[in-house]
Design a protein that fits this description.
553 residues, alpha+beta, FAD/NAD(P)-binding domain, Flavocytochrome C3, Chain A, domain 1, 8-stranded mixed beta sheet, 7-stranded mixed beta sheet, 20 strands, 27% helix, 19% strand, globular
Length: 553
């Protein structure tokens, strides 16, 4: 056995939402805890996030009179997570036993976990407020409120409180609240401690970790267990190319998200799962190009394209997706494969002077600057011909830039008939906008799209559509597929223990967050679809690790 540099009942690897929930739950059960962070600051990707967490049947929604029946909630999650398997007439809704049980475990444990973290003072949530256009006075609708399985379209999304006037993403305050609680409990948080391997005893039980710290190797003992709650592998190009089912230009996850737990878990015999999936959104390519795939600027994130006449078109000048659909859904239009190319690999977000002049401070304004402001991610042109030329110039400037698992390759160029096709696309969209019915992509047909549209000039009842002007100036940003993080890794059971391929657990090893095979499958259930499961399974992991028997050296 190595010479231990630090000992605790439970070792938690990471300092994001899953890790903090794990540490808080373990400390709550009386266990001593040490947290290890590879970066020089705590918080992980949670600190950079929107701070929302999707929690079914939570006590705040129940206090407002919202009900969230268990059977229906599990059906909704199953449909979104495993659409290729979901069949409500089949046992377990058509899902394999473990996948079904993980969804049920999330429903059963999510609200109690949040309630206990509130009681401890680690969380102080509110229901995500109504931004002004919801039919419900309390909150906005769920992303998939229109689905027949969704019997609780309001109230599942909780978020951290932000100080009045703050322009920071609420994830900062979520992270700070969790970390403050742990510091008050005396939990050591060791920064610049990158875990490189686990330590096992003669029986194969995980009893600690090997750590690299400032060029030296250290060994940290976990007497009852080790919980990995680190990021995914968004910043490991080799893993992305090997596993991801779609080409990705960037990620807003912290750069320490390099998939260490995929390698460590595989080394100790863990089953790996869900490696092809991630939590997707669109990002401005020019920001990703400037930071080797790391999306840094807050305005580079395009969650919901702003403006009632804003369009997304591909290199042929054609619309390819409902511009107002949820970002996780919309982004997968970039992955469309046609014979020898990805025709939608790069998309162009185009808006007109009215949208540019619109002054509303809307939460999803994103890449569209306020009137009088400029952005290096946005360019302008007087005509469609000039716009095409500007697009060519910006594409050429990014050729050779280092992204993640994709690049501005030679076939990423505008087609010769881009301008006339774009003009026809605008005219066709304008016809739809005049009636309020998008015959191509059904824009504006869901409650969420209507509510999160923001300001609108429409008089048709479809707030998401208004004719785009046929004369300039035009504004444009170049977008590509990005990921909040990946969602694959070692498979866990309902107790958050890491499993072998035969279904048995690896003693002493637990997992939660983006580093594991996410119970969400390929789905993104709504705002906070990453942090909700992270908090819940982190809490489960911490509670179970703290009450596990001591493992001998």
């Amino acid at each position: 056995m190595p010479q231990w540099d630090h000992r605790a009942d439970v070792v938690v690897v990471g300092t994001g939402a899953a890790a903090c929930a794990a540490a808080a739950a373990a400390a709550d059960r009386g266990a001593s805890v040490v947290m290890l962070e590879a970066a020089d600051a705590a918080g992980g990707t949670t600190r950079r996030s929107g701070g929302a967490y999707w929690i079914p049947n939570n006590s705040l929604m129940r206090a407002h009179g919202f009900t969230d029946p268990r059977a229906d909630a599990i059906k909704l999650m199953a449909r979104l997570s495993y659409p290729m398997l979901y069949d409500p007439a089949q046992p377990r809704l058509g899902l394999p036993k473990l996948q079904y049980e993980l969804l049920a475990a999330f429903y059963d444990n999510a609200s109690p976990a949040i309630d206990r973290l509130r009681q401890l003072g680690a969380l102080d949530p509110i229901i995500l407020p109504n931004y002004g256009y919801s039919p419900n006075p309390v909150t906005d609708p769920d992303y998939f409120a229109e689905l027949p399985e969704n019997h609780a379209p309001y109230g599942r999304v909780l978020t951290a409180k932000s100080p009045p006037g703050s322009t920071e993403f609420p994830g900062l305050y979520l992270s700070e609240g969790l970390l403050a609680h742990l510091r008050n409990r005396g939990v050591p948080i060791l920064l610049k401690h990158r875990v490189t391997d686990v330590v096992r005893n003669g029986r194969g039980e995980v009893i600690g970790v090997e750590v690299e710290n400032n060029g030296s190797t250290r060994f940290i003992r976990g007497k009852r267990g080790v919980i990995f709650a680190t990021g995914g592998f968004a910043h490991d190009r080799d893993k992305l190319r090997s596993y991801s089912r779609g080409p990705l230009f960037g990620s807003c996850s912290v750069t320490t998200s390099n998939g260490a737990f995929v390698d460590i878990g595989a080394h100790v015999g863990a089953e790996l799962g869900n490696l092809a999936n991630g939590f997707y959104y669109q990002a401005a390519l020019e920001d990703a190009a400037a930071h080797e795939g790391f999306v840094v600027r807050p305005d580079a994130h395009v969650f919901f394209p702003y403006g009632d006449s804003t369009l997304l078109v591909n290199k042929y000048g054609r619309r390819v997706v409902n511009e107002k659909s949820p970002y996780h859904v919309r982004t997968q239009s970039h992955f469309d494969w046609r014979q020898t190319e990805f025709p939608n690999l790069v998309q162009f977000m185009i808006w007109d002077q009215w949208t540019a002049n619109e002054p509303t401070p809307w939460p999803w304004r994103g890449i569209v600057p306020f009137p009088g402001q400029t952005s290096p991610l946005v360019f302008q042109a007087g005509t469609l011909e000039q716009l095409a030329q500007r697009i060519r110039e910006h594409l050429d400037a990014m050729r050779g830039a280092s992204f993640l698992s994709s690049a501005i390759v030679p076939f990423v160029h505008l087609s010769p008939d881009f301008v006339p096709t774009l003009r026809a696309t605008i005219e066709r969209f304008n016809t739809f906008a005049s009636t309020g019915v998008d015959l191509d992509f059904h824009r504006g047909e869901t409650p969420m799209e209507q509510a999160w549209q923001g300001p609108s000039r429409s008089t048709t009842g479809n707030r998401t559509m208004y004719p785009l002007t046929l004369s300039g100036p035009y504004y444009c940003a170049i977008l590509g597929a990005a990921t909040l993080d990946t969602s694959g890794g070692p498979v866990i059971g309902t107790d958050a223990r890491v499993l072998r391929p035969d279904g048995t657990s690896i003693p002493g090893l637990f997992g939660a967050g983006n580093c594991i095979a996410s119970p969400t499958g390929q789905g993104y259930w709504g705002a906070g679809g990453t942090i909700g499961p992270a908090l819940t399974f982190g809490f489960i992991a911490g509670r179970n690790a703290a009450t596990s028997p001591t493992l001998s050296d």
